[in-house]
Amino acid sequence: MAYQDHIIEMSQLIQSKSGAWDGINAEGVARMRLQNRFKTGLEIAKFTAGIMREDMAAYDADPANYTQSLGCWHGFVAQQKIISIKKHFGSTKGRYIYLSGWMVAALRSDFGPLPDQSMHEKTSVPALIEEIYTFLKQADARELSLLFRDLDAARAAGDAAKEQTLLDAVDNFETHVVPIIADIDAGFGNAEATYLLAKKMIEAGACALQIENQVSDEKQCGHQDGKVTVPHEDFLAKVRACRYAFLELGVDNGVVVTRTDSLGAGLTKQIAVSHEPGDLGDQYNSFLDCEEISPADMKNGDVVLNRGGKLLRPKRLPSNLFQFRAGTGEDRCVLDSITSLQNGADLLWIETEKPHIEQIAGMMDRIRAVVPNAKLAYNNSPSFNWTLNFRQQIYDAWSKAGKDVSAYDREKLMSIDYDATALAIEADEKIRTFQADSAKRSGIFHHLITLPTYHTAALSTDNLAKAYFGDQGMLGYVLGVQRQEIRQGIACVRHQNMSGSDLGDDHKEYFAGEAALKAGGAHNTMNQFA
């Protein structure tokens, strides 16, 4: 509803109360309504699911339309990210938020810092989703408040042209509320536990759930060793549980992202149930590392498979886990991905050990031969040493092309001594274009960095501590933080405004009129930053 329509509707309602509501300002109500566009998390989930579906269709039409996100571990971090995007690019189109289970475990658990092994409270995940959207909605309210203040100033000055421009800006206001792709880990239990948690996450506002095919109670970070996968049917039950949760809550276009860790996972806890040759269970078991035996070779407690009339004994480790054959990871990733898409998944996530476009493309080519519109969400992980990886890729390409690489030591390419070399410059250019190049070649619809704001918080705090507690003292803060905020137009340099002080003043004026005791008067030191 347009701003003026809200005012008209409220005016009519107030007039219908025979004077009892004459103390209510219709325009004030209209402003508060626009500043609180989303009343529930479900409204947000439905709205943002529509955005993702439109973006997926745009990518299918042209892979230049890939999308991006950065992982955020606090509502304020997410808020500042989206404010920054709107400031620099004028729109949030194609920019999302990623919610990382790793960062929830490391930063948001009541147990304190934990590894990414699903040991944190699962309720902390929907709580963070709700927190992020609370901060994003507050960013809407704050920015609209600034427009309303400018509108009042234009009216007071009798500037009708500026007033109309501001009214148009209000009516065409783009919300800070963007899609969240939320990490549900391996579901924190069985399919029922997955469904219950999925509901909480969707009710908090999540339109996209990312679930992985690891064993819940043995879950590991995607870039650690010791990962254990589950048979397809077990995983698909959880995929369906997520879909049921979306459908029950009326988010019919919710997005399910299925992650396979099979590339780095060499173990399984279960031998899949198979009813006939070639079914999903049989395909899963076909990757097991087995030895052919005769009945006489069987030992007490052996688990034996019958395949084509042969008895096969899977290799079982002392941990009671079964081992896959070496070199089967890519084949298992491809089967995992095809199976997920054929059973309700919308996007894929293949966790790799390095950022290599052709490695990803090789698997996606095979997947797309079966499911032509298959798309990836890809982890541009901080666990990769991007500098070393890409310098080595350029070194290898040069070597293959017969180019002289004698000036370089492949194992020491991370050295600062190489930073200004032609090889390092070409590698940096490949890093710069990695997302666009892989979106075109490798079917990557969404590029995310899981833990960037974890690292930026540590880096910026280190820089400040080094300066402030050293010889620079207060100048360390002023030079490194405040002056940069002023010069770069960082909104939270006016931290009272960012925290909602001016919004509170608006409300006080609505509620108490001229009797309101407001904080934003002439003696507010934030005026130094006006």
Kindly describe this structure:
- With 530 residues, the protein is an alpha/beta fold.
- Helices cover 48% and strands 11% of the residues.
- It has 19 helices and 14 strands.
- The chain has helices spanning 3-15, 26-35, 41-61, 75-89, 101-107, 124-156, 160-171, 191-204, 232-248, 280-285, 329-341, 357-368, 386-400, 422-432, 434-442, 452-468, 474-488, 495-499, 501-512, and strands at 67-71, 95-99, 180-183, 208-212, 228-229, 255-260, 267-268, 290-293, 305-307, 310-314, 322-323, 347-350, 376-379, 444-449.
- Strands 12-6-4-3-2-1-14-13 form an eight-stranded parallel β-sheet. The chain has a three-stranded mixed β-sheet with strand order 5-7-11, with no helix packed on it. A three-stranded antiparallel β-sheet has the order 8-10-9, with no helix packed on it.
- Helix 4 packs across helix 6 (124-156).
- The two termini are 32 Å apart.
- The model has no long low-confidence stretch (mean pLDDT 94).
Count of β-strands:
14
Radius of gyration: 28 Å
The helix content, as a percent range, equals: 40-55%
**Whole-Å distance between the termini?**
32 Å
Query: What is the strand arrangement across the widest sheet?
Result: 12-6-4-3-2-1-14-13
Structural class: alpha/beta
Tally the helices: 19
